[in-house]
Amino acid sequence: MKRFIKVEKRNHVAVVRMNQSMLNRLNSEVMYELQETMNELQHDASVGSIVFMGEYYKMNGDHRTTSFLREETGRLYQPIHAVTARAIFQRISCSSKQTIALLTNFTFGGGYELALACDVRIAEEPVQLKLTNGMTVSAQEACNMGKVQHVVQKGKGLEYSLALNALEKEA
Fold first, then answer.
1. With the CA atoms of 148, 146, 151 and 110 taken in that order, what torsion angle do they form, in degrees rounded to the nearest 10?
2. What superkingdom heads the lineage (predicted)?
């Protein structure tokens, strides 16, 4: 059973919610579960699209080299190596399924890299993104720059993602 990723399936759409209590960091444990989830969803014929989102507040990444001792498990936690993360993001980018990143709050680091790997990026207002050049921009600015394809009202992103998938099926 996965600790940090929950998958919910709705009408041929798999909604992948990532929650790692330390600010939703994409650490080695989360990325391992993400890789397992992608393996399962790639082989699931009932899934046509995959929506990635942070469970509560942000999609974030931590590629620092410091280590932490996990209180719950007593195991040493090491942030994921950037090369491994790139391989997982490449897998998402090359997926045979449509991939959608739903950005619901401040998004940066590995969370932003994951979003870039997706086919479609949807930002809910008032999301902010920290781009790879270090600049922080609003959802609308990101849309104007071509970093995000759609900007929607707060709380409407998942509904919009599901509607987008339904339109793709009809086309």
1. 20
2. Bacteria
